[in-house]
Amino acid sequence: MRNAFTTKPDVAQTGKIRVLIADDHVTVLEGLAAMIGRQPDMMVVAEAADGREAVELWTQHHPDVALLDLRMPTLDGVGAIEQIRKQDGAARVIVLTTYDTDNEILRAIKAGTKAYLLKDAHREELLDCIRRVNRGETCIPASLVEKLAAGLCSESLTGRELNVLELLARGKSNKEISVNLYISETTVKTHLRSIFRKLNVLSRTEAIMVANRRGLVQI
Amino acid sequence: MRNAFTTKPDVAQTGKIRVLIADDHVTVLEGLAAMIGRQPDMMVVAEAADGREAVELWTQHHPDVALLDLRMPTLDGVGAIEQIRKQDGAARVIVLTTYDTDNEILRAIKAGTKAYLLKDAHREELLDCIRRVNRGETCIPASLVEKLAAGLCSESLTGRELNVLELLARGKSNKEISVNLYISETTVKTHLRSIFRKLNVLSRTEAIMVANRRGLVQI
DNA sequence: GCCAAAATACCGAAATGATGGTAGGGCGGT
DNA sequence: ACCGCCCTACCATCATTTCGGTATTTTGGC
Fold it and tell me: Rounded to whole angstroms, how far apart are CA atoms B78 and B163?
């Protein structure tokens, strides 16, 4: 079993940081490969087009750093991170995503990601991030830390409350939600009051907005 | 002044399709450049990081095909297309975007784009699209045509209705909207009724959902 | 088996939203 | 000058949502 203190054989051989990249957008994959391939101190050892493939290729190659998109088919980034860290708890994973909703960041960090990069990051930002993570450091932009700090103090929603919120965000009325969940309209109202209190809003429309911003539901 | 019937000097010289690419994500830009650069029949002549730069570089290079992201700083894709086509009505522009909301597609096509590609398009799809557009053909995926057909039969919102809808989508109440727009709450209700009728919905929450799906507002 | 949390449910009052009809002022086009 | 459209505005009425407080049952963990 590999661990963080094992000298990585391939690094020793090539002297390069071995990187796995995963993204369902072929353009992004090409771009990452091109940028990384040009660096003298790193190389791409595997490219995956979805989450499942990313886990398989990680198992085969055991790269120094893995760069994963959060939204991918078959298995999303968080799922892939969990699978990978089941094999190696010290695996170094960078999450690369277009969106920065609170919930996605939180889930990714809970799953054990070392760094969280937005896709509009600059070239040097991204390459430096790979180098830092390879050295065992973490790399979370200050703007994201702020978002986290703001969100962490809020209570989390229960499963049922999330069900209600999801239907709410689809534009359903209380009656429609009750029919959909096989509960009474009164119960829906009770759940809604809890949701409003937890999200610190006063109306359903506000709730939709906040839920969307926090990544609790996607409209 | 160039026009569609002028023989393009650079093509005659190099025999390659000269492509301009524009995207604010450096990764995507790199990816496009790598893919296009590998093709024997095309080459990247200019790379822009935002809309204004795209227009400037188009003016300088007059490429055969321009690949533009829709969402860019300083000037969005549609604005860039309009500027470019002011110089050359026959300019061949491909729109490349992550999202496929009805309104964005419609605006892009109205502005005179020849092709509309989603960023998760496959490699060959993208390269073939460039070749087809260079030959003067268009290239709009069937799935997008369907979306358009579905949306075209609906009435369009007036400017004031869009103002109301925007605030609505921010979770504002009728009273808050009225204060924000310096109109009475009654007027807000009148606008809302028009909005509901035009979007074919029955409540404000449904309106938010539909407006977001059609790209009328972004939450 | 017990405790805490979650899910379910009801009542009633107050606020907000939805829907009908109606209408005057402004503005651009024919 | 007239027509159509947009923006504005009001009244009345009904439906829905929001906000108190309260209570039972179910579920999961210790």
Answer: 21
- Residue B104 one-letter amino acid: E
CA-angle at B13, arms to B130 and B18, nearest 5°: 25
Residue B160 CB in 7 A reach of strand D: yes
B118 touches chain A (CB under 8 A): no
Whether nucleic acid strand D comes within 7 Å of the CB of B173, the answer is no
Find, in chain A, the residue whose alpha carbon is nearest to that of B25: A120
Residue A182 CB in 7 A reach of strand D: no
Joined together, the tokens standing for residue B179 give: 């204060």
CA distance A146 to A141: 9
| Chain A CA closest to residue B33 | A31
Distance CA A70, CA B42 (A): 32
Neighbours of B155 (CB within 10 A): 10
pLDDT at A3: 43
Give the DSSP H or E segment for B69.
strand B65-69
Strand order in the sheet with B17-22: B42-48, B17-22, B65-69, B93-97, B115-118
CA-wise closest residue to A90 among A127, A44, A58: A58
As a whole number of angstroms, the distance between CA B67 and CA B90 comes to 15
Q: Does B27 touch chain A (CB under 8 A)?
A: yes
- Of B94, B205, B212, B216, which to mutate for an interface test with A (greatest number of A Cβ within 10 Å)? B205
pLDDT tens-place string over residues B70-121: 888 898 888 899 899 989 988 999 998 887 787 778 788 878 888 988 888 8
Q: Are B211 and B169 in contact (CB under 8 A)?
A: yes
CA distance B7 to chain A (A): 31
Tell me if residue B94 falls in helix, strand or coil.
strand
The whole-number pLDDT of residue A13 equals 63
pTM flag (> 0.90)? no
pLDDT above 60 for A152? no
C10 nearest neighbour residue (CA to C1'): A186
